[in-house]
Amino acid sequence: MTKVALITGITGQDGTYISKLLLDKGYVVHGIKRESSTTRIEDNNKEKKNVNLHFHFCDMTDYSKIIRIIQDVCPDEIYNLAAQSSVHTSFDRPEYTAEINSLGTLHLLEAIRTLGLEKKTKLFQACTGEIFGNSLETPQNENTPFRPQNPYAVSKLYAYWICVNYREAYDMFVCNGIMFNHESPIRPDSFVTRKITKAAVRIKKGFQEKLYLGNLNAKRDWGFAGDYAEAMWLMLQQDKPDDYVIATGETHSVKDMVEFAFREVGIEIEWEGEGLDKKGINAGTGEVLIEVDPQFYRPIESSLFVGNPSKAREKLGWVPRVNFEELVKMMVKNDLELVKC
Predict the structure, then answer these.
(1) Which of 29, 71, 174, 237 has the fewest CB atoms within 10 Å around its CB?
(2) What percent of the chain is predicted at pLDDT more than 70?
(3) Which range marks the domain in which residue 56 is found?
(4) Mean per-residue pLDDT over the chain, rounded
């Protein structure tokens, strides 16, 4: 029997990868997107060519519309990927962040319960390694205490706990994926990784003079979004629901990302100065290409994130296939194709 999946935030990075994975596995896929969201060309093509892909317009704050969609679709699996996912924006718009990330998750859970789908519909909730904040424990695992340091992380922590609550109170199949940073060529350039790879290409081709960044020493556990989509699916194929840290177990700094990206376009970066005065210099020409701009610093910076994915490896059989260097190469190659001239 063909499985039916509902994906919120289907036009985003994670939604794109999980929808492709599910369609390849023969699922009928329904996606929720905001009317104001920008749909990629490939999504338009899939909508025309693939009869198993369907779209619904809805905002995660609209509970009545959400419950109608779930009632009509009657999904076997729901992947909740819709979110206000910018940490920087969450400081500027904390209420909106909470409405989408926290209450949006509650709306899905309550819709499943109200419609009597507790025994049919499984839910994957996209959580984040940001909930660990300035953890005293490294690497972080499923038992590490949470210490969120920004409104985005706080909103996701509410989503995490409300999922646990509904799982225990109503015996629902709900899984939290505590996913550390995961990137790809389709990551928007509002995120620092894509901002770096795109700038490396534009500087190489003469379309941009400098790249301005915040904390160059901030370290993250960066993986490939396509690998993380597989982990989401694996969680919902288990006999029992559980929560899993999804990460590579390796950490790299923003400075590392800069060096790898610029090296891919043939530019070696050397560093001078410290703190706000730190500059990245083209080793071949002496030009200053990277500077620090205080406006890109977070009010509270969680400086080190690295996850321990051993539980996912042991119980799900999941291991990341793309390493950090391969990820950066993939993203730079994509940006080279986009910036042709």
Answers:
(1) 237
(2) 94
(3) 4-184+223-249+304-321
(4) 93
For the question of residue 130 being annotated catalytic, the response is: yes
* Closest C-alpha to 244, from 174, 141, 165: 141
Same domain, yes or no: 308 and 292: no
Q: Say whether both 199 and 106 belong to one domain.
A: no
Type of residue numbered 147: R
- The verdict on 115 and 202 lying in the same domain is no
- Per-residue pLDDT at 4: 98
Let me know if residue 50 belongs to a domain.
yes
Catalytic residue among 11, 97, 105, 130: 130
For the chain, the domain total comes to: 2
Separation CA 119–CA 212 (nearest Å): 50
Active site residue 27: no
pLDDT tens-digit profile of 157-171? 999 999 999 999 999
Tens-place pLDDT, residues 213-235: 999 998 999 999 999 999 999 99
Same-domain check for residues 133 and 158: yes
What is the distance between the alpha carbons of residues 38 and 189, in angstroms, rounded to a whole number?
14
**What are 180-189's pLDDT values in tens digits?**
999 999 999 8
Does 176 fall in a domain? yes
Evaluate whether 174 touches 123 at the Cβ level (below 8 Å).
Answer: yes
Is position 83 within any domain? yes
- Judge if 115 and 260 occupy the same domain: no
> Is 8 a known active-site residue?
no
For residues 229 and 317, membership in a common domain is answered with: yes
Please check the confidence at residue 70 and state whether its pLDDT lies above 90.
yes
Query: What is the predicted pLDDT for the residue at 333?
Result: 97
Q: Check pLDDT > 80 for residue 274.
A: yes
Task: Identify the active-site residue in 63, 79, 152, 244.
Answer: 152
Please, are residues 325 and 334 in contact by the beta-carbon 8 Å criterion? Answer: no
Joined together, the tokens standing for residue 105 give: 């998750």
* Structural domain contains residue 46: yes
Q: Six-digit token pair at 218?
A: 């901030």
List the beta bridge partners of residue 182.
223
Q: Compute the chain's Rg from CA coordinates.
A: 20
Residues 74 and 197 in one domain: no
